[in-house]
Amino acid sequence: MYENPRLILDSSNPPEPGEILWRTPSNIAIIKYWGKHGVQLPRNPSLSLTLAASCTDTVLEYAMKEAPDNAIDLEFYFHGEENEAFRTKTLAFLESLTPQFPFLRQLQLTVRTGNSFPHSTGIASSASGMAALALCLCSLEDRLFGTLQEADNFDTKASCIARLGSGSACRSIFPYAAVWGATPAVSGSSDQFAVPAEDLLHPVFKDFHDDILIVSTAEKSVSSRAGHALMEGNPYAEPRYAQARNRLTVLVDALRTGDLETFGKIAEDEALTLHALMMCSNPSFMLLRPDTVALIEKIHAYRRDTKHPVYFTLDAGPNIHLLYPGEIVAEVRGWIEDDLKQHCADEWVIQDWVGEGPEEL
Ligand code: PMV
């Protein structure tokens, strides 16, 4: 998709050097993507809320190469320092994208990137990082060739490119919420790219919080690449994919009507299903920590006692994402302070919320 051999610069009329900067948020899946096939295609549709505070800023600097050659010329800085490991990874990704962006071989490129949250803390930086890079590349194409003037085309290509970098990244392109993967519940949905889901949201979900309780900052013991691959031999894989499809349809209804209880039930069931799948894969992974379980029990008790609509979800790690509507933010923050923080590494909580999506700065 999006291969275009005509996107080649005229060397007799080189572009002025320039730079592009995108600030791009992470996202939290409510229906989880876990299991893939082909070229980073999902086994089931997923739905996420777009975050605001957890984000990546990426600057892409470009200038025409002085002497043409076939290599991709890339410098890479992470939080101001050259980073060889990230450079190698990004170079391989850009190489894989030359059918979509053939002009990349004609340019000298520098990427300067950094996250609003520390790297390798169990907070997924691949979603915001890959989405930010995809947006920079699409802006570059449009600046050089004027080929992505229509906002919808731009977003769809950016989402498709982000997906090739990291599946869940394709959902970070859109404000508030996004759906990735073909589902009859959302018209225009596709396995190739995410689509915006803002229109599906009752207003209560546009003022929604996700406070991330950092239980552990240790590196994940299973990469998401390995985790997706393990689904191939998992005996529950097929029923799981069917379950995700059904849950997405029910969730879309709950999002439309503002049904917090159904939303919360699905969010928690999905989180526990994801971890159950990891526990029963071969080899098996247990990513929940004792404090994760203690927090889950406290969330259940708080909900029972206060009747507040406070729910959790989890990524492929031990940290709790606490989900709740804006109208109870003061009470919930007080409770986190008094009762939950003690379960977090260095009492660390990242306050996040549903946000307006990426921003070109
Ligand atoms: O995008 P990946 O390959 O890092 O996979 C992400 C998988 C989960 O975060 C566990 C779920 C999701 O849909 O974001």
Q: Can you put this structure into words, describing what you see?
A:
This protein is α+β, with helices and mostly antiparallel strands. It has 2 domains: 18-200, Ribosomal Protein S5, domain 2; 203-359, Alpha-Beta Plaits. Helices cover 35% and strands 23% of the residues. The chain contains 8 helices and 14 strands. The strands form 3 sheets. Strands 1, 4, 5, 6, 7, 8, 9 and 14 form an 8-stranded mixed sheet that branches. A 4-stranded antiparallel sheet has the order 11-12-10-13. It has a two-stranded antiparallel sheet with strand order 2-3. The longest helix is centred in the last third of the chain and has 21 residues, at 237-257. The protein is globular. The model has no long low-confidence stretch (mean pLDDT 95). Bound molecules: (3R)-3-hydroxy-3-methyl-5-(phosphonooxy)pentanoic acid (PMV).
* Distinct ligand kinds: (3R)-3-hydroxy-3-methyl-5-(phosphonooxy)pentanoic acid
Helix content: 25-40%
Largest sheet, in brief, is:
8 strands, mixed
- End-to-end gap: 28 Å
CATH topology title of the largest domain: Ribosomal Protein S5, domain 2
Roughly what is the average pLDDT, rounded to an integer? 95
Q: What percentage of the residues does DSSP assign to strands (E)?
A: 15-25%
Summed up, the helix count is 8
- The first-level CATH class of the largest domain is given as Alpha Beta
**What is the β-strand count?**
14
Domains (count): 2
Runs in which pLDDT lies below 50 for 5 or more consecutive residues are: none
Nearest-angstrom radius of gyration?
A: 21 Å
Category from helices, strands and their pairing = alpha+beta
What is the annotated CATH architecture of the largest domain?
A: 2-Layer Sandwich
